[in-house]
Design brief:
The complex is a heterodimer of chains A (379) and B (99).
Chain A (H helix, E strand, L loop, with lengths): L12 E5 L26 H14 L3 E5 L9 H10 L3 E6 L6 H10 L3 E6 L4 H8 L4 H13 L4 E7 L7 H11 L3 E6 L4 H5 L1 H4 L3 H18 L4 E5 L19 E4 L5 E2 L20 H7 L1 H4 L17 H4 L4 H8 L15 H9 L6 H4 L7 H13 L1
Parallel strand pairs in A: 1-2, 1-8, 2-3, 3-4, 4-5, 5-6, 6-7
Antiparallel strand pairs in A: 8-9
Chain B lengths: L11 E4 L4 E5 L4 E6 L2 E4 L2 H7 L8 H12 L5 H13 L3 E4 L5
Antiparallel strand pairs in B: 1-5, 2-3, 3-4
């Protein structure tokens, strides 16, 4: 057996959010809404130390994301060090800033894979949602990625405004030669939570899109593997979020905060440790934040005595907090939750006919972040 | 399903371009890495795949495994594993030694 001490859990997947800087302004961004307050990014040397510590803990997959990771001029250096340490390196990018020179340098540094985001299959909606003219650029970047022989995942966040284009989005993925397509229904945290009423698809839309995806899967086989991730708001059992708190994932924020998931920064009463102050080993094994929701001792009823608690582990802590105000509550997506009615209210509630016009989307910009920060400080 | 490449004992298997195969000390196992995912391999799968280097034919790999495990009864298992690994896209085939 392995000589790694308890807990047996290994942070196999580490996500490095290298920066919150981003040329795109997508209204469903998973970055915290108050990102503008974070000014001090980890240095190259700090990241390299963190990579080495994570590798020693058994981390294998490294996701390099942001913001836009290409905003970091030292990205190539970081990839080279991660590759040297034995990580499988995934660049998760909007494509903005990825030219021939940088692509070749990343290849030379040992980059394994590129995940390229599109916001839609049409130039109009792609450019509206990102508030940039980037659709044509992304098409060119896709060619560049394939020309350099990288496996490519195309990612598209799905929501009410583009879910009816799922067929054309799959066609686009086939056209650009992606090996995988991740159709990720919006998860309602951060900016997406602010824009939930405009972005949440209707049940009919969701069902139609699932049928479209099933039809394509049957037709195209293994040529393109489609990962269709749905939001669990329409379900009666919550998702097994992050495969369990502090079991598999670790996200490092640009300022060194170490989090069990992307959204954990907003949770009250969780004192998130910083990789600037402690080693990842201490943080992963011993920090109160990472131990807070491990196992089932923390669970309230109805989870504690539920025969299904081992499947969903009580659901998502961030969703529980956003919908109930209590980070330790049963995820109200579960129809056994005493607060499940709040989810039903959201999914069955009235929707404006043209949501993006009736109530404008709040785009992810530093200005909007500053403004939200001011409002949060007041209240 | 995509039609897997036909192969025989004279063909040369290697890890497919989309995958990376490596030893992971923390898990005491060989793993296959691919975009945003990982398969932890059992001992048999690891021993077979580690020989799929594009330089040895399926027949040579089977002979090598027979010697390593001192067993004549493994041919069927190895071939079955190679079939399913091909179906899963883990392994690619050449009719001759790859350059």
């Amino acid at each position: 057996m392995s000589s790694v001490p308890t807990p047996a859990a290994v942070p196999l997947w580490m996500v490095a959010e290298l920066t919150y800087r981003c040329p795109l302004h997508c209204p469903f961004c998973s970055n915290p809404v108050d990102f503008a307050k974070i000014k001090s990014e980890l240095s190259t040397a700090e990241w390299c130390r963190i990579f080495a510590e994570a590798r020693a803990l058994g981390a294998v997959q490294l996701g390099l994301t942001g913001g836009e990771p290409l905003s970091r001029p030292d990205l190539e250096e970081l990839v080279a060090e991660a590759h040297r340490l034995g990580f499988y390196t995934n660049l998760i990018t909007s494509g903005v800033g990825l030219n021939e020179t940088r692509m070749r340098a990343l290849k030379d540094a040992g980059l394994d894979h590129v995940q390229l985001s599109f916001q839609d299959s049409t130039r109009e909606l792609n450019d509206f949602l990102s508030s940039t003219r980037t659709f044509n650029l992304k098409r060119r970047v896709a060619t560049l990625i394939k020309d350099h022989g990288f496996p490519m995942v195309m990612n598209c966040v799905i929501h009410r405004l583009n879910i009816d284009h799922v067929d054309r989005i799959i066609d686009l993925a086939l056209e650009i030669g992606a090996e995988y397509l991740e159709l990720a229904n919006t998860q309602f945290y951060g900016w997406a939570d602010l824009n939930r009423s405009q972005l949440l698809p209707t049940r009919e839309q969701l069902e139609r899109s699932e049928a479209v995806v099933a039809g394509y899967r049957q037709r195209i086989g293994n040529r393109l593997r489609i990962l269709y991730v749905i939001s669990d708001l329409y379900e009666t059992r919550p998702k097994r979020c992050m495969n369990g708190w502090g079991t598999t994932f670790m996200v490092i924020a640009p300022d060194g905060l170490v989090m069990p998931c992307h959204a954990a920064r907003m949770l009250p009463g969780i004192n998130l440790p910083s990789a600037r102050d402690a080693s990842l080993r201490e943080i992963w094994l011993d920090s109160p934040a990472f131990n807070r929701f491990r196992g089932d001792q923390w669970m309230p009823e109805p989870c504690r005595s539920c025969p299904e608690k081992g499947k969903d582990l009580g659901g998502c802590r961030c969703q529980a907090f956003l919908l109930t105000g209590d980070v330790g509550a049963t995820d109200p997506v579960c129809d056994k939750s005493p607060l499940h009615a709040r989810v039903l209210e959201i999914v069955n509630g009235p929707r404006p006919p043209r949501p993006e016009i009736e109530r404008p989307l709040v785009f992810r910009t530093p200005e909007n972040s500053e403004q939200l920060l001011a409002t949060m400080t007041e209240s | 399903m995509a039609d897997p490449t036909p192969w025989s004992r004279a063909s040369y298997p290697r890890i497919a371009r989309l995958y990376r195969f490596q030893w992971e000390a923390a898990q005491n196992a060989y793993v296959l890495l691919f975009p945003e995912g990982m398969v932890q391999l059992n001992v048999a799968a690891g021993e077979i795949l580690r020989r799929c280097d594009g330089k040895r034919s399926a027949g040579e790999i089977i002979a090598d495994l027979r010697a390593a495990f001192q067993s004549d009864a493994i041919d069927g298992d190895v071939e079955a594993f190679l079939r399913s690994a091909t179906q899963d896209g883990w392994v690619e085939w050449r009719d001759a030694v790859s350059p």
